[in-house]
Amino acid sequence: MNTLSYGLLSLLSFAPLSGYDLAQKIKPLWQAGHSQIYPLLVSMEQQGYISYKLIKQVDKPDKKEYTITETGLMQLQQWVETPAEHPVLRDEMHFKLYSLWLSEPEKAKEMLRKREEFCMSELNRYKDMLKGNEVLREKRGESHEPKATTFGRYLLIRKRIMDMESALQFCKLALEELES
Question: pTM for this structure?
Fold first, then answer.
């Protein structure tokens, strides 16, 4: 089991999902393609961590909807309770900033403005996700406590909101520095 496997189990602990839906939902959390996800689903199914039911579709190929098993939940719980590795930071802009002295000031500003636009879009998306999580929490009749299924998702969304707010502050600072 690797980190991506546990990420898939985490998503499945929230709700049953197809392989396609898993690939879409994991994008904001982890960089992974279909070619990585589908073999892991086969392996996790063989190990008894997940099961699936075949959904018949009209005008489309049938799809598998995956569900986490009790064994998968126990495996996920063990993993959740172990300390997380230090984060790996991969952001191309960091290298570009390091060599910013080679760029024309207007091109550097354009790069930062594009990042600013991206961060603002992501911030709005995460704020919408936070509202959706609150609706789901109420629908499930959960309180706002650590044992609620929506609590960890709430914390993760709040973290991403803070990350985007921080990134926006950085873009503003960098643009101001370029102006002076």
Answer: 0.79
